[in-house]
Specification:
The radius of gyration is 76 Å and the shape is rod-shaped. A two-stranded parallel sheet has the order 1-2. The chain is an all-alpha fold and about 425 residues long.
Length: about 425
């Protein structure tokens, strides 16, 4: 009997040792034992077995919850927040931990889903909504969501500025395009006008050159006329001198004819006297009377001729006076003509110099017009390029505005350009 008691006591101690090892986790299971034979130890063994069973059942439930917690935490560490602790433990603290974890998962799911929804809207260029940050009192998630909302503010600010700048650029590009088109058309018209002007200047230059040649020819003709006039003046002076000499000789001739007439008159008187003397002489004076009669006839004929010569000499003297006056007037006219020719030649020289200066000026204008033409052609080309660039800018601005039109953000409807 004593031996059985000692054996049962040892069995009880063995059970307690197993329990102790289970508690310190040296073993993870306690098998049921029924080795006691005495009544008291048998009840103790039974009670210990019941306690072991309760402890193992409790630990098993707690271990299940622990397992779910561990798996949920592992998933959370990998980024999954949609897990739940579904089992319950006998330990209130473990259940509280599980409940806290479930609450955390719910908040994380709610916050992350809200963030994903908002970010999905951002992805579709809808910046009207923000992430709800009141779900968390603080910490990294609250800072993260507030950072996303701050990013939203910055994006909205940037998009608003871009949209407004796009509207401004579209408006300004439209104005620039119109002005550039006007400038291009004006430059082209100007280039055409410059080309026409250049052609006209070339024609004028050609006319001036031709006029210069004609003026040179006129100067040569004028110099020839001047030389001829000088020769004519010399001849007129010679004529005037000759007419003076002729006039002098005519007067002398007239005087000689007058003397002949007087001699004829006196001869006639003498012949009359001789005839009278011959008549008184009778027969002896008949021959002498015949001679006297012939002398008288000659005297009468000489007187008649002298009268005719006097008449002709009067006409000749009149003509000579007229010729002398004409020669004098001609000489005066030649002198005046030479003065006028000299003035004309001087004027032609002046016109020639002016024409050459004008030709030089027209050539300079022509060169300037050609330079202007080149510059105008370049300006027209540049204006065309500006027109094309402004048109492209306007297209880009329209595309910017169209792209911004699809973006939704707070305050967009308030962006209006002033006229």
């Amino acid at each position: 009997m004593f031996f059985n008691t000692k054996k049962d006591k040892k069995a009880i101690l063995n059970t307690l040792d197993l329990l102790e090892k289970y508690i310190v986790e040296d073993i993870n299971k306690i098998d049921e034992t029924h080795t006691c034979s005495s009544g008291d130890f048998k009840e103790i063994e039974k009670k210990l077995s019941s306690i072991n069973t309760l402890i193992q059942k409790r630990d098993q439930k707690n271990l299940t919850v622990y397992g779910e917690i561990m798996l949920a935490c592992e998933k959370l560490s990998d980024g999954f927040t949609n897990d739940k602790i579904t089992s319950t433990a006998d330990d209130i603290k473990i259940n509280y931990i599980a409940k806290s974890l479930n609450t955390m998962f719910d908040k994380l799911n709610t916050g992350i889903n809200n963030a994903l929804e908002v970010l999905s809207q951002y992805e579709n260029q809808n910046y009207l909504n923000k992430i709800e940050t009141q779900l968390f009192r603080g910490g990294a998630f609250k800072q993260l969501f507030e950072g996303v909302n701050s990013l939203n503010d910055k994006i909205v600010e940037q998009v608003s500025s871009t949209y407004k700048q796009g509207l401004i650029l579209e408006k300004e590009s439209s104005i620039l395009t119109k002005k550039a088109t006007t400038l291009s058309n004006s430059a082209q018209h100007q280039a055409a006008a410059i080309e026409e002007t250049a052609a006209a200047i070339v024609e004028i230059s050609s006319i001036f050159s031709s006029n210069s040649q004609h003026i040179t020819s006129v100067i040569e003709v004028g110099n020839n006329v001047k030389e001829s006039s000088i020769k004519g003046l010399s001849l007129a002076k010679d004529t005037d001198s000759a007419m003076d000499e002729i006039y002098g000789f005519t007067n002398k001739t007239f005087e000689a004819v007058s003397q002949i007439a007087q001699i004829a008159f006196q001869t006639n008187i003498l012949s009359l006297n001789a005839a009278v003397e011959a008549a008184t002489a009778g027969e002896a004076g008949k021959g002498f009377a015949v001679v006297a009669q012939e002398v008288r006839n000659l005297a009468n004929r000489s007187a008649d001729v002298a009268k005719e010569i006097e008449g002709l000499m009067d006409v000749l003297r009149t003509k000579v006076e007229t010729g002398k006056n004409i020669a004098t007037v001609m000489t005066s006219d030649y002198e005046e003509m030479i003065v006028n020719i000299n003035k004309t030649v001087e004027l032609i020289d002046t016109i020639s110099s002016a024409s050459k200066e004008q030709e030089t000026g027209v050539n300079q204008i022509n060169n300037a017009i050609n330079d202007i033409d080149i510059s105008t052609q370049k300006n027209a080309s540049i204006a065309q390029d500006v027109s094309e660039i402004s048109s492209k800018n306007y297209t880009v601005a329209q595309q910017m505005v169209e792209a911004s039109e699809s973006i939704k953000f707070v305050g967009k409807e308030n962006i209006v350009l002033e006229d």
